[in-house]
Amino acid sequence: PLETIIAPSILSADFGKLGRECIDTIEHGADWLHVDIMDGHFVPNLTFGAPVVTKIRERVPRPSTAMGKGTFDCHMMISEPHKWVADFKKAGCDLYCFHYEAAISSTAAESPEAKSDEKTTPKKLIKYIHSHGMKAGIAIKPSTPVDVLWDILEDSDEDARPDMVLVMTVEPGFGGQSFMASELPKVTALRGKYPNLPIEVDGGLSEKTIDQAADAGANVIVAGSAVFGAKDPADVISKLRAAVDS
Ligand code: DX5
Ligand code: ZN
């Protein structure tokens, strides 16, 4: 049974009172917090790092079950994602979602240090994340075809397979962009093969676009501006959930 998960992106929260915003969002009915980490290199924007995650973790109760309420879903829009696994585990991240494009990037592959490194291919990185006691997610940008994921999802070693796939429905980097329905066939293809795989969509999700995403088969819904820009965030969260459940 595939659960509907609403994961508001705190990128659109008021960073001046981030702890309070996180507590409120969970109280408004959110399942997870989607935590966007940007390094100004993989994407043309900066957010924050592990010290901030540590401090919001102190204010938001930890999930009592794997991927349960209060899960910190860290979306790592960063180059060299293997470098931050230990720090984010320590900070309280539950689900470490890296970008496929970053894990296979020439920078990582070409550095002599990385070449012999056991953490830099997607499968190795997934195992490395698991070895730290976190769930592993793999994200793809709009320009990346879904076909790159089949080999990873079908690996004979369960430990090398991701616990979630994130299909970006905007170019990563900024909140408040327009939803790209062109990405939904990726969700449909994934759902067709994997009825029980958590599939997350991120970017431009709102009451206007949720039905298309849900019809394609997404069950983990990120929404930043739609939730934090609303007069009644609890109402938006419950409407998004109802749309996926129906
Ligand atoms: C974009 C981020 C998203 C963003 C979504 O790079 O990964 O999580 O916060 O914001 P909205 O929902 O406003 O498109
Ligand atoms: Zn995100």
UniProtKB/TrEMBL annotation:
One GO MF term: D-ribulose-phosphate 3-epimerase activity
Superkingdom of origin organism: Eukaryota
Pathway: Carbohydrate degradation; pentose phosphate pathway; D-xylulose 5-phosphate from D-ribulose 5-phosphate (non-oxidative stage): step 1/1
Keyword Transferase: no
Residues annotated as catalytic: 36 (proton acceptor), 202 (proton donor)
Keywords annotated in UniProt: Carbohydrate metabolism, Cobalt, Isomerase, Manganese, Metal-binding, Zinc
EC number: 5.1.3.1
Cofactor(s) the protein requires to work: Mn(2+); Co(2+); Fe(2+); Zn(2+)
InterPro entries per UniProt: Aldolase_TIM, Ribul_P_3_epim, Ribul_P_3_epim-like, RibuloseP-bd_barrel
CDD domains: RPE
Gene Ontology annotations of biological process type: carbohydrate metabolic process; pentose-phosphate shunt
EC top class named in words: isomerase
Cofactor binding, per record: Binds 1 divalent metal cation per subunit.
Catalytic activity reported: D-ribulose 5-phosphate = D-xylulose 5-phosphate
Sites where the protein binds a divalent metal cation: 34, 36, 75, 202
Classification via Pfam families: Ribul_P_3_epim (PF00834)
Chain residues that bind substrate: 9, 75, 173-176, 204, 224-225
PANTHER family tied to this protein: RIBULOSE-5-PHOSPHATE-3-EPIMERASE (PTHR11749)
Similarity comment: Belongs to the ribulose-phosphate 3-epimerase family.
Classification via HAMAP family: RPE
NCBIfam families in UniProt: PRK05581.1-4
Full protein name: Ribulose-phosphate 3-epimerase
